[in-house]
Amino acid sequence: MENGVSSFNQFIHELSVDSDTSSSLDYSSGEDSDGNTHPASPLSHSSRVSRANSFTKPDRRRTHWIGWMFSWILVPINFLLGIPLYLYRSSFCRQSRVPTNAESFQPSILRSPRRSHGLKDHFIQRTTDRRRGVIEDLHLAIEISIEAIFDIVHKAAHGVLSPSKLFRALFGWFSSHGSGNEHTAASDLDGTVLTATLGDDNPSLTERKTTFHQALNTDARTCQDVITQFGYPYEAIRVVTADGYVLLLERIPRRDSRKVVYLQHGILDSSMGWVSNGVVGSPAFAAFDQGYDVFLGNLRGLVSREHIDKSISSRQYWHYSINEHGTEDIPAMIEKIHEVKMNELKSGQPVLEEETTGDQPYKLCAICHSLGGAAILMYVVTRRIEEKAHRLSRLILLSPAGFHDDSTFVFTLMENLFLLMAPILATFVPAFYIPTRFFRMLLNKLARDFHNYPAVGGLVQTLMSYVVGGDSSNWVGVLGLPHYNMNDMPGVSFLVAHHLAQMKRAGKFVMFDYGSAASNMEAYGSPEPLDLGEYYGFIDIPVDLVAGRKDKVIRPSMVRKHYKLMKESGVEVSYNEFEYAHLDFTFSHREELLAYVMSRLRLVEPARKQQSGQKARSKKKDTEVTE
Fold first, then answer.
1. Which of 293, 314, 588 is nearest to 428 (CA)?
2. Which carries the bigger pLDDT value, residue 315 or residue 69?
């Protein structure tokens, strides 16, 4: 023991210094370095001085001589502890430093510039992602356990070899136990941990708060966190549907704008998908930067089960099909958008003649993906059948659902099995979701392991792509997004899955079949469910359809079926294809797609207030002249 630092701790410190030096060279070697990698900080001056002065040459000789004598005396102990000590030292050689609560382990695969560049598309600000995977947690736990065991052995050996010091320590402990009991209890309740770091400028003890949430190292950021961390404004609006479901309508507000866009996610997704690519590649941020007031819809189907009935059961909550998405969720959110915009645009402004006659002072466009596309089409058709205003000016549908008869063998097998087992499964399985926080946390951490260990991630990616018919989307990357967290997670109602199977079996875009002519008659006024494709003539706004040539979930032939029926019905519709898979429309940074979507939005330009006023005055003059 020299200057308060044991020889063993000094050995470990020198090892960590060497490791830090080599790791810093590795991290800085690539030109295209990842934002999640940080070079090791250099040693402080005081650390160098303390290391240089701790052991001079005579001290080293004396220590070596004393150590040689004790090595013969403690042969049995060396034999029993030799192997664990070797494993302990090896673990420290492999790990350059133990991460603090503010940083996570840096996976070795990120040191490769090529791999680092390939992972950039599917992470949201990875420098703020403080998750650790299950394997990393086990690694850390094993090292801490070994360190604790050897600390006990070290203290026990010290007590045996220095009994006088042991007795003095025990006496001091008993004498101070009574006076320091309250302080210790308060410290335990506070959850503080005393830590000391070798080589710091100030070697005094520092207090570090440790909480249960930090120990789990999961990523539970919300869409609000992602939006605000980029410096964009944010607003959350609670929307209650007619049947009592509480939905979260999120907004990047531009209150004075007369250009409004509504983005609707697909199945097993949330509003997070529209901001997941950061500032440059996300449709929500791109639309806001183009002057749009942006609204992000969230369909019912989260594990949190928000409903006005706080005592609603799981079976009651999940009892809905795609019908409710198109006839309850979307109408409630669009009506809320209309209410908000009318209040904001009319506040403190004179009311124009066009506005008093029922025309909107704003233009609302919708961008929808997958299931969201089917739901918005159902919304427009049913509102027009009911002779109600749908308030939309244009639809941009990215790989919309609705037609599924041309699908892979895997989907066909799942459809037949599902329809066969539906009467039995419906009584036991209300939905497909992860019900407990523990297993959601486990999935969140496993997703981190999939990224850190390419072999495991590649295997999971392959299995997931086969399950969904060979689609090459980055399924592993999507599982790593924050909305798949331990607090909440999207789920799929059993009836939604049943409804999709009915569409595939029928080969038509039909509403939910309730299983009997009487039930269908009560819901639709006919013994058969409504075939929405037959009513495409009611669509009175332009529609832009986009398909992915690599999409195996909703093949381009199925999107072209929408296009054919709309064209035959006289709808102003366009069709385009890109070399994308199903999830590439939202979770990948695709400049070509983003430019195309923005170009379609710009086709709808609302009349400015001044122009509208001039038109109103010119009409009045024309009327006077005619009279």
1. 314
2. 315
Q: Which helix (H) or strand (E) holds 209?
A: strand 206-209
pLDDT confidence band for 393 (50 / 70 / 90): very high
Q: Is 561 exposed, middle or buried (0-12, 13-18, 19+ CB in 10 A)?
A: buried
For residue 446, which of 135, 48, 106 has the smallest C-alpha distance? 135
CATH 3.30.70.360 fits 223-348+359-409+491-612, yes or no: no
Handedness of CA 389, 392, 396, 398 (dihedral sign): negative
Whether the CA torsion 274, 277, 278, 280 is positive or negative: it is: negative
By DSSP bridging, strand 543-548 and strand 573-578 are parallel
The dihedrals phi and psi of 84, each to the nearest 5 degrees, come to -60, -35
Going by C-alpha positions, the residue among 338, 303, 306, 294 that lies closest to residue 241 is 306
Return the bridge partners of 492, or none.
432
Q: What are the beta bridge partners of residue 577?
A: 547
Strand 543-548 to 492-493 pairing: unpaired
Given a cut of 70, is residue 134 above it in pLDDT?
no
pLDDT of residue 132: 64
What pLDDT sits at residue 613? 44
DSSP 337-401: HHHHHHHHHHTTSPPPHHHHTT--SSEEEEEEETHHHHHHHHHHHHHHHTT-----SEEEEES--
Domain ranges of the chain: 188-216, 223-348+359-409+491-612
Asked if 573 contacts 544 with a C-beta cutoff of 8 angstroms, the reply is yes
> Counting Cβ atoms within 10 Å, is residue 74 exposed (0-12), middle (13-18) or buried (19+)?
middle
CA torsion angle for 103, 108, 112, 113 (degrees, to 10)? -10
Tokens 């819901």 belong to which residue? 523
| Rounded CA Rg of the chain | 32
- List the one residue out of 321, 298, 366, 254 whose CA is nearest residue 492: 321
The per-residue pLDDT for 349 is 59
Q: What is the mean pLDDT of residues 347-374?
A: 75
CB contact at 8 A, 394 and 544: yes
Which among 52-66, 200-214, 269-283, 612-626 has the top mean pLDDT?
A: 269-283
Burial of 328 (0-12, 13-18, 19+ CB in 10 A): buried
Q: Pick from 340, 505, 305: which is nearest to 407 by CA?
A: 505
- Taking Cα atoms as reference points, which of 540, 544, 542 lies closest to residue 598? 544
Mean pLDDT of 477-503: 87
Tell me if residue 293 falls in helix, strand or coil.
strand
Mean predicted confidence (pLDDT) in 489-516 = 94
pTM of the model: 0.67
- Residue 604 has a pLDDT of 92
**Contacts from 590-597 at CB under 8 Å and sequence distance 24+?**
590/281, 591/281, 593/546, 594/281, 594/283, 594/286, 596/546, 597/283, 597/286, 597/367, 597/396, 597/398, 597/546
Pairing of strands 394-398, 431-432: unpaired
Task: Tell me the pLDDT of the chain averaged across its residues.
Answer: 75
**Which stretch of DSSP H or E encloses residue 237?**
strand 235-240
Strands 394-398 and 293-297: unpaired
Comparing CA positions, the residue from 608, 617, 621, 611 lying closest to residue 257 is 608
- For residues 129 and 123, the answer to whether their CB atoms sit within 8 Å is yes
